[in-house]
Amino acid sequence: MDDKALAAIAFELYALPFDDFVAARTAAAKAAVGSGKELPAAVKALPKPSVAAWAVNMLAIHEPGVLAQLAELGQRMRSAQASLDAAALRELARERRTLLGTAVDTARSVAERRGRTISATIAADVERTLQAMTADEGATAAVQSGLLLQALSADGVDTVDLDGAVAVPGAVPAPRATPQLTPKQPPAAAPRQEERTTAERGTRKPADQPRLKAVRETPRPASPSALEKANAALAEAKAAEEASARLAADRQRQLEDTEAEVAHLTRETPELRDRLKAAEEQLESARKSLGTAAAEAKQAARAADKAKRSAMLAQERVLRLGNTRD
After folding, report:
1. Which residues contact 142 (CB under 8 A, 6 or more apart)?
2. Environment class of residue 16 by beta-carbon count within 10 Å: exposed (0-12), middle (13-18) or buried (19+)?
3. Residues 147, 168: contact at Cβ < 8 Å?
4. What is the pTM of this model?
5. Rounded-to-integer distance, Cα 172 and Cα 152, Å
């Protein structure tokens, strides 16, 4: 099967309005019949994205600059975390909150322009997905691909689970490897002492002694202290706590809105039932009146036709009598 052809079709399908996806997928599968059996089957098997994933795809397609800002911020956050820079992490966490708020608002706007209103629940899933892309390079590539199928989430510890998250995984570029920060190694000219054999130590020339002494005296980079590690972990934990608090607040607002709507509908239901009953009675009465009116109209039409014929006969008689008198 031509993977490039499948990816090209997928990019077109996942760029469509949400409600157009299924019909367009069926049409695309039929159009691909001439390319063999595998491509139509693969097109037909492309899953419909969740509303949250679709909203993120719309953001990737129509506002890629918003995602580019979040991707760049994610790189800075991962660098700060790797270097255990607690102060930088706190500042970056504040910056991320601002960018996430702007990104979610933009996603709402783009989705509405494409015919779909985003609820508070969907908006929370969009925000969680965008936050995940700042924590993991694989998630960044998945979000920016425009082929996302489901919302993502990050716990700040493990990598983001991308299994089944993208429609055509082969079309998503692999994330760049993040270099690991490791202590600098001693100069290569100074082999480690334990790697030398007894024979080498016995035959080493006196001239080697100053160089060995210099290597031994070279200070090794200091490892981060326990306090520095704790501060970095604390900053990340606070950022996660604030994100969770925002999500909980959104869920609480959604709960209150839903409860209010249920209460309103509960109050309105009896009235609507009464109105429905009255409307049904009016409809039945109107149907009876319609039947009566139809019968009366038919009878009137017959009477009018009879009267017309009578008038014609009378007129003929008048004419006939008039001609006879002359």
Report:
1. 133, 148, 152, 162, 165, 166, 172
2. middle
3. yes
4. 0.57
5. 16
Cβ-based burial of 48 (10 A; exposed 0-12, middle 13-18, buried ≥19): middle
Query: What CA–CA distance (Å, rounded) separates 2 from 154?
Result: 33
Asked if 230 and 237 touch (Cβ cutoff 8 Å), the reply is no
Q: Which residue has the tokens 């367009």?
A: 24
Main-chain dihedrals φ then ψ at residue 223, nearest 5 degrees: -75, 150
For 256, the token pair is 């209150």
Tokens of 157: 């510890």
Quick one: which of 184, 185, 96 has its CA closest to 133?
96
Q: What is the pLDDT along the chain (326 residues), one digit of tens a residue?
A: 568 899 999 999 999 999 999 999 999 999 998 888 899 999 999 999 999 999 999 999 999 999 999 999 999 999 998 888 888 989 999 999 999 999 999 999 999 999 999 999 999 999 999 999 999 899 999 999 999 999 999 876 668 889 999 999 888 876 654 444 333 343 344 444 444 444 444 444 444 444 434 434 444 444 455 665 566 666 666 666 666 666 666 667 667 666 776 777 787 788 788 888 888 888 988 888 888 988 888 888 998 888 898 888 988 888 888 877 65
Two tokens, residue 28: 């695309």
Cα-based distances in Å from 239 to 32, 231, 259? 48, 12, 30
What's the full length of the chain, in residues?
A: 326
- Chain-centre distance of CA 28, in angstroms? 23
For 276, how many CA atoms within 13 A lie in the half-sphere containing its CB?
Answer: 6
Alpha-carbon gap, residue 141 to 308, rounded angstroms = 87
Both tokens assigned to 255: 């709960």
Report the 10 Å Cβ neighbour count for 84: 19
